[in-house]
Amino acid sequence: MTNLEHASIEKYVNMPELLARVENDSELLTELLALFQDDFPRLRDALHNAVHAGGPRQVEKAAHALKGMLANLSIEHGAALAANVEAAARAGDEREIQQAMAAFDGGETGLLAAVGRFMAGGEP
Amino acid sequence: MRILIAEDEAVSLRMLQKTLERAGYEVTAVSDGRKAVEELCRPEGPRLALLDWVMPQLDGPAVCRTVRRKRSQRHVYLVLLTSKNSKEDIVEGLESGADDYLIKPFDPGELKARLHTGIRILELEDNLLEARENMRYKATHDSLTSLLNRGTILELLAGELNRKQRDKHSISIVLGDLDHFKLVNDTYGHIVGDEVLREVARRMLGSVRSYDFVGRYGGEEFLVVLNNCCAVETAADRAEEIRKAIGDSPIRTTQGSVPITLSLGVSVSRPCDTLPLEEILCEVDGALYAAKSAGRNCCRLGSAGRA
Fold it and tell me: Buried (b) or exposed (e) across B270-284, using 16+ Cβ within 10 A?
């Protein structure tokens, strides 16, 4: 593994913490990131759909699910941004929801690509 | 130890599953609350569970409430594992019946330590239940023969007398007394006497059906309740079988073979009979006395049997 790979994914993921949480099991780490690659787009789309078509309750649920997944993978900043969307939805504040969503979308840009590079074995 | 994980988010589920399997748990995973309830309420279902809060069908607190309501026999240790981290959430989660509350993302060391606490509590409960069962057994059984003791066999007889009137069936009561048992004790000693009593008990249990009751009524007296045994002839035949089971072959003891015989009194109580327990016991005792007077090692019917 090159430093560049780490640098790339570590922009998003607290890798030392994640490695500790998987008890240094690199196979499990790879498996979890693969699950993330499959599930993240679906959960993110569900959140977008809830913001555009659903009520605050749906937004809260969708943001909660994303927050859980991101937190589990030590994607700390992403989890915090999802938590902001969840809080705004719980408060029922439409303007806050839009702002928090914009911040979330900005924050996760490049995340999947970074994970993809890491999984592919090192191309930054 | 088996553990249920109820979690609908794939990453969290896989991480939990792997962590727990590595720690030696046998994991059952479900992805919604209703399936979690089904698993936990099965008689042999897991007794340890990690429940997410937000799940399809039923959320974590609803699972806790349902399991607490439905499954009362043995405790299931329920841990809510959620990213809901406000004080209000923690209070609500614990009030719903959860034993513990962990906040995501979990730390593997803390998770395992908390589950060890749960296992200690479950083991404590198992030990208490076992101790209670041992005490119940000791309180209801004769320590020498392991037959029901006098209090218990009389209690069961009273219950059966009530039931036979309600369900319109008959029961037969047999009172047996070992012949010349004092002579066994005097000749071979009390240790051999005890061996004889234990073997008599074993033979008696072997000569009745699984739903009949056999109790040690006194020193060398035994009371047998034959459920659903209505015909006088049948009752007499059954008593005769017991007599033969005891007397047909000598009992092997540490001091050699000891021949022993049994005299029996029999009483049949039909649904229409309203004799109270005390009078039924008097009657069967009278029948036993008649058997003794007739030369022992035989059966005699009580007056109800002749009616």
Answer: beebeeeeeebbebb
B108 in reach of chain A (CB within 8 A): yes
Residue matched to tokens 């859980």: A68
Phi, psi of B35 (to 5 degrees): -65, -35
Q: What integer pLDDT is reported at residue B293 of this predicted model?
A: 96
| pLDDT tens per residue across span B258-282 | 999 999 999 988 877 778 899 999 9
pLDDT, tens digit (0-9, with 9 covering 90-100), for A20-49: 999 999 999 999 999 999 999 999 999 999
Which residue matches tokens 């599953």?
Answer: B17
Contact B198, B240 (CB under 8 A): no
Instruction: Return the ∠ at Cα A19 (arms to A120 and B16), rounded to 5°.
Output: 100
CA distance B147 to A51: 72
CATH code of residue A50: 1.20.120.160
* φ, ψ for residue B142, nearest 5 deg: -75, 130
Q: Which amino acid is at B120?
A: R
To 10 degrees, what angle do helices B60-70 and B33-41 make?
Answer: 20
- Using a CB–CB cut-off of 8 Å, the residues of A that contact B are 20-23, 25, 28, 31-32, 35-36, 38-39, 61, 64-65, 67-69, 71-74
Residue A51: inside a domain: yes
The number of distinct structural domains making up chain B is 2
Say which of A20, A22, A61 has its CB closest to residue B15. A22
DSSP B32: S
pTM value > 0.80: no
The Cα B129–Cα B148 span in angstroms is 21
User: Domain span at residue A97?
Assistant: 3-119
Say how many domains are in chain A. 1
CB A111 within 8 A of CB A12: yes
Q: Is residue B145 part of a domain?
A: no
> Is B220 marked active-site?
yes
Q: Which residues of B touch A71 (CB under 8 A)?
A: 83, 104-105
What ipTM goes with this model?
0.85
Last residue within a domain, chosen from B114, B138, B162 = B138
Residue B32 CB: number of other CB atoms within 10 A?
A: 18
Return the axis-axis angle of helices B232-247 and B190-206, rounded to nearest 10°. Answer: 140
Residue span of the structural domain in which B261 resides: 150-306
Supply angle C-alpha B249, B266, B149, rounded to 5: 75
Measure CA of the first residue to CA of the last residue in chain B; give whole Å: 61
What is the total residue count of chain A? Answer: 124
